Amino acid sequence: MTYDLYIGDRTFSSWSLRGWLMFEKFGLTHRVHLTGLYSGRLAEDLAPLAPARLVPVMRTPDGIVVGDTMAMAETLAERHPEAGLWPEVPEARALARWIAAEMHAGFGALRGDCPMQLFGRYEGFEPSADVKADLARIETLWTLALERHGGDWLFGAYSLADVFYAPVAARIAGYGLPVGSVAQEYVARALSDPAFRRWRAMGLTVSYAPEPYRLDLPRGDWPGPAPIPARAVETGPSENDACPYSGKPVTDFMEMQGRVFGFCNPFCRDKTVQDPGAWPKFMAILR
């Protein structure tokens, strides 16, 4: 049972991040299709998926097309009750749905003033009063969930509530937004999550000129975990003969810690260069 998932540019498409995490975090088999969100091809790419006009969109293994992340979430939860997308306890599940729906429908100031970008953290960004009000509400919801039901995540185990708030955590990080210690700790966990790191690493393989949403502010390093330094190199030989992801013969190479590793295409190499420690299949051959 393989789903098809249609997404936009990973560095900027917060809704696509939500859609991808629904599959990645709960072990649901899927194929990813990139659409031309910033190239003008979006309508053409989504034409076979009518009435879809935005990303993400999914097609189920039996051919049903579902758009909008809330509809996707509920459809996947219905189809895969064993996967634990929502909390099991009814009280926790109700609150998780509530706060996810509030995120899905609200926080317009935060969305409008702070579009998601995963390149680095803006320095000197001054949030408006409306953005601060959104942040205060988000802190109230996170604190309530964590105090009543939480652990590392909002409801103990990772759930769809954490999926919906992952782009919020990215916005807080990317704009250096002022939040209290509970929220800062939650943001740090979200940024350290290996799935989030893999999404960001894949996004960083693409460069933009001009960059969408770029502010005229200095931008420092991304506040998530610092990756292991690595770089692309032109030639091997590599320690491995097969790509750690596809098993195909290697054609593209990366140097890390004085060692050379091979991959089957530039994308496999470049996503690994961006954050080697986020990729378990690569780390297995490193050891």
TrEMBL record:
Top-level lineage group: Bacteria
Segments passing through the bilayer: none
Gene3D superfamilies in the record: 1.20.1050.10, Glutaredoxin (3.40.30.10)
Domain GST N-terminal intervals: 12-78
Listed GO MF terms: glutathione transferase activity; maleylacetoacetate isomerase activity
A GO biological process held by the record: L-phenylalanine catabolic process
UniProt-listed PANTHER family: MALEYLACETOACETATE ISOMERASE (PTHR42673:SF4)
Name of protein: Glutathione S-transferase
Native source species: Pseudooceanicola nanhaiensis
